Amino acid sequence: MKSIRITRLPDTRRPALLGAALVLLAVTSSSVAAADDGPGPFGVTVRAAENGRSVRVGALFHGDAASGGAGGHFCTASVVRSRGRDLVLTAAHCLEGQAQLSFAPGYRDGRAPYGFWDVQGVFLPEGWKRDQDEDSDVAFAVLATRDGEEVEDAVGGANAFAAHRATGATAVTVTGYPGSVDSPVTCTDKPTAYSRTQQRVECPAFAGGTSGSPWVNGDGAVVGVIGGHEQGGDTDDVSYSAVFGTEAEELYHVAALAG
């Protein structure tokens, strides 16, 4: 297994505007638009419903699994398909310099219903390792087995990883964990191109801690993660992702076969 030693930069996404976030989270999750361009409204952030898809998303914590989340959560990751059934996807800037990290899928209300999983291997693109290129702000982590089980089996499935998808071909559903909230929030909207290699989506109240949040398209595949430009954006209401191209695709294949 390939493990890479790295140096952490802090997650720079701005703290949430608490009053606005509470208003938005009061909206019921049934109002969220479907990612396959179903009925709206788009661009509304709500508390994510607890279901088979949302539990594939979890919070990344400082400290190993044995600490039970005592180090606090600081980024978001999601389970993606792999041969070893043990792979999560996040932003490269989330996997820097911490000797011990753990992942809690489906983390909600301060509880980890599927437990904490140790990160035991990290895969970063060459562009990020070389000069922290914002177009390479994507990474994978392999998780250790827990109680004889792999994370994909524990949560009942995983999302596909998809590169070379046209930005905005369908809407995407973005789900993540703001640092000040112990439950996931979610929003659906159509991303637009920011540049040839960066995309953006307008979803309010995605604050610090949501870096690494997956963008799941209408086919149920992850086509972006919050990161890239300005490590995901310098406001809560607009988030960015690198466009997944050849570099991200090749990294995925290496990581997916490593478990």
Automatic annotation (TrEMBL):
Record-linked Pfam families: Trypsin_2
UniProt keywords, alphabetically: Hydrolase, Protease, Signal
Taxonomic superkingdom: Bacteria
Signal sequence, renumbered to the chain: 1-34
Keyword Transport assigned: no
Record-linked SUPFAM superfamilies: Trypsin-like serine proteases (SSF50494)
PROSITE patterns xrefs: TRYPSIN_HIS
GO MF term list: serine-type endopeptidase activity
Entry keyword annotation includes Secreted: no
Protein name: Serine protease
